[in-house]
Design brief:
Length: 137
């Protein structure tokens, strides 16, 4: 796996491109001179845990023949300042699913993702408490 990051402006706006040519923009926060032209790296980390869990939950529900009409995850993270850096201490994933989906199956899929399958969750687990809630329809 390889990502190339190229600076776009004279400040902190950067483009990250993967091996398939897919890209995303990153920027620093306005308080350090960023211009809001991309997600900040810590926001990308929350997006990564949400995206990773989304893939797991959708795969599990599809295998169970559940019909998903729409799927969203709201991810909230609380950071704690430690010396010159800060860590996520609490992350909450709120799965919002619409369709012909059994609540118990959706709960089980979320549990399996967060506790067993999601690699991003596993990376964050040593420093962050990751919890979830599931809303169906």
């Amino acid at each position: 796996m390889k990502i190339n990051i190229k600076r776009i402006d004279d400040d902190f706006n950067m483009e990250a491109v993967n091996e398939d040519g897919n890209s995303l923009l990153m920027d620093g926060s306005p308080d350090i001179g960023g211009h809001g032209k991309g997600m900040r790296p810590m926001q990308l980390l929350l997006a990564a845990v949400g995206g990773c869990s989304a893939i797991d939950v959708i795969l599990i529900l599809k295998k169970q023949k559940q019909i998903i009409e729409s799927f969203e995850i709201e991810v909230e993270g609380e950071r704690e300042k430690i010396e010159d850096y800060s860590l996520f201490r609490d992350i909450v994933l709120h799965f919002k699913i619409k369709g012909k989906v059994d609540q118990d199956k959706a709960e089980r899929a979320a549990k399996l993702s967060v506790e067993k399958y999601c690699s991003v969750s596993k990376i964050l687990e040593p420093t962050a408490k990751i919890t979830y809630k599931v809303s169906v329809n």
